[in-house]
Design goal:
Blueprint lengths: L1 H26 L122 H11 L1 H21 L5 E7 L16 E7 L3 H4 L2 H68 L4 H36 L30 H11 L1 H23 L4 E10 L9 E10 L8 H45 L2 H20 L4 H36 L6
Antiparallel strand pairs: 1-2, 2-3, 3-4
Helix pairs in contact: 2-5, 3-5, 5-6, 5-8, 5-11, 7-9, 8-9, 9-11, 10-11
Length: 553
């Protein structure tokens, strides 16, 4: 840095001597400092032509010539730009013209190393590095290999979600209860040995006689009073309830998967918008810093744009974290373990042709509620729970009836020791319980209370379903209206305003505040556009889930 200052001081001194000698030459033609050939010839080959300066006063600090020879880019490095008036970045580099049509080389002048114009005083901003043009290009968020579509995600949810598998086991448990209730009771076999001798029986010392009893009993009250039939009916309704609960679990999990899918798409679009915003602000920062170097902008503008760039960088980090979180939630929604390959989605938030029911009147609320009451699995489950509770009362009433257990037995007596022949006989029994005190009054009252509770639960869910459907219909109507109102045309207009404002800022026609305001307007419009598209798809799937069937696609 000290060497640079020393060189600058030498240049200033040399320039002062040259200017002083030139003024003496006019007064003394024989001055030894007369320059006979002040400008050496230019090197051979085509030379780029400098553009003419616009008429009128120039902005303060704008250089009309190149500073040093090493600052002039080689012809092969010059971009093919259309000649235009100088902007805040300094003189516009003209296009490279082929040698056949190359204009005549201008007179040698300030580009010659012997005639270097001193730089303006350095500012604090000039010490900062100028952002390169590469940083002004937004990078699209990559889609990982193996990304899945929405239909694939829904299919994987049905196959792999542990919660759905757990719900399937509930059905199997209910089927086990049905199997148990359908089994008839087991018979009972009783074998008795009576009058077994401790000492030998003799005619003088008789005893016994020893006796063997084999008695088999089998209850028949389950058939006579319909206890088994009532239990089977109740268990069958329980299987239906479990099936409805499983279907409701599927409805919720698929809706959750669809929501998580579009959350990933929304987070990715937001990250792309944040990266685009950062790239545009860096481009404006590049223009501002160069403008400060040339004296066309103040250091406060450079600091202001630096703060905006810092805020944009923080926004990019936040959006990247949001995308990572959304992917993790999506992976959990489809039931894919985290140790497997990374999960990503493939799709678009763009809303094409309206999916149907764009206005509030096209899908009447009464029709939507009627569809929900007929098709929603949770409503079906609650209705079946009411039927199960009613069946449970019948089950408890049958249990209050008597138990009938007939028995049939075989008896054999050994009487020879007493001087009598052995004898075999049969026996028949019937055991009947007398429901005199316990007639299952408590369980019957409990079953009646369960029925009342089930009816209230159904009524409450119907009210909640009507509210859910009304909310879903309203949200979808609003989302579709917003998605239709804020379309690609508004987004393109906001982008055009931003780009033209940045271009005018580079030419000195707009201020930095105008640029930041245009960038903010574009960012807000684009963000609103993304949120509107995402809200549309979220509302569509919420409406399908609220109704219980796919009424919109």
């Amino acid at each position: 840095m000290w060497l640079c200052y020393a060189r600058r001081a030498i240049f200033v001194a040399a320039l002062a001597m040259v200017l002083g000698c030139a003024s003496d030459k006019h007064e003394n033609p024989q001055s030894p400092f007369t320059v006979s050939n002040p400008l050496p010839p230019l090197p051979a080959g085509p030379q780029p032509a400098l553009p003419p300066l616009p008429a009128g006063p120039q902005p303060a600090g704008v250089r009309t010539t190149a500073y040093l020879a090493d600052e002039v880019p080689a012809p092969s490095q010059l971009p093919a730009l259309t000649p235009q008036a100088p902007n805040r970045q300094g003189p516009v580099v003209p296009p490279v013209v082929p040698p056949a049509t190359q204009p005549a080389a201008p007179p040698a002048g300030p580009a010659d190393p012997e005639y270097r114009v001193p730089r303006p005083a350095r500012s604090a901003v000039e010490e900062l590095p100028v952002p390169s043009d590469e940083t002004a290009t937004p990078v699209a968020v990559p889609v990982l290999p193996g990304a899945i579509t929405l239909s694939e995600a829904l299919a994987e949810t049905l196959q792999s979600d542990p919660k759905l598998r757990a719900a399937v086991e509930t059905i199997r448990q209910a089927e086990g209860d049905l199997r148990t209730s359908s089994l008839p009771p087991n018979p009972t076999v009783q074998i008795n040995g009576d009058f077994l001798p401790v000492r030998p029986f003799t005619p003088t010392r008789p005893g016994g006689p020893p006796e063997l009893d084999v008695i088999g009993s089998y209850p028949i009250d389950w058939y006579v009073f319909g206890k088994r039939a009532a239990a089977m009916t109740n268990a069958q309704i329980g299987v239906d309830v479990s099936n409805a609960d499983y279907c409701d679990q599927v409805r919720q999990r698929l809706a959750n998967t669809a929501s998580a899918f579009y959350d990933v798409l929304e987070a990715r679009a937001m990250l792309q918008l944040a990266q685009e915003d950062l790239a545009n602000l860096k481009r404006v920062e590049q223009i501002t810093i160069k403008g400060v170097k040339f004296g066309g902008s103040g250091t406060i503008e450079a600091e202001r744009i630096r703060l905006s760039v810092l805020a944009a960088q923080n926004d990019v980090c936040t959006r990247a974290t949001t995308l990572t979180t959304a992917k993790a939630q999506f992976r959990a929604a489809i039931g894919r373990p985290g140790r497997m390959s990374a999960t990503d989605v493939m799709g678009s938030l763009e809303v094409g042709k309206p999916a149907g029911a764009p206005a509030r009147g096209s899908l009447p609320l009464a029709d939507a509620v009627a569809l929900a009451e007929r098709n929603r699995p949770d409503i079906i489950s609650l209705r079946r729970q009411v039927a199960k509770a009613r069946s449970g009362i019948e089950v408890e009433q049958t249990k209050a009836r008597a138990q009938l257990t007939p028995a049939l037995g075989y008896q054999y007596q050994w009487q020879e020791a007493n001087g009598d022949p052995d004898a075999a006989s049969y026996t028949a029994q019937l055991a009947v319980t007398v429901p005199l005190f316990d007639r299952n009054q408590g369980n019957i009252a409990k079953a009646q209370s369960t029925l009342t509770q089930s009816c209230y639960n159904l009524q409450a869910q119907l009210v909640q379903t009507e509210a859910d459907v009304e909310q879903a219909v309203g949200e979808f109507a609003d989302a579709e209206e917003t998605a239709t109102r804020i379309g690609p045309e508004q987004l393109a207009a906001a982008r055009s305003v931003r780009d033209r404002t940045v271009e005018a800022y580079g030419l000195g026609g707009k201020t930095l505040l105008d640029v930041l305001d245009a960038e903010r307007a574009y960012r807000d419009t684009h963000r609103t556009y993304i949120l509107a598209q995402s809200a549309y798809w979220h509302a569509l799937h919420r409406l399908n889930a609220a109704v219980g069937q796919q009424v919109l696609q």
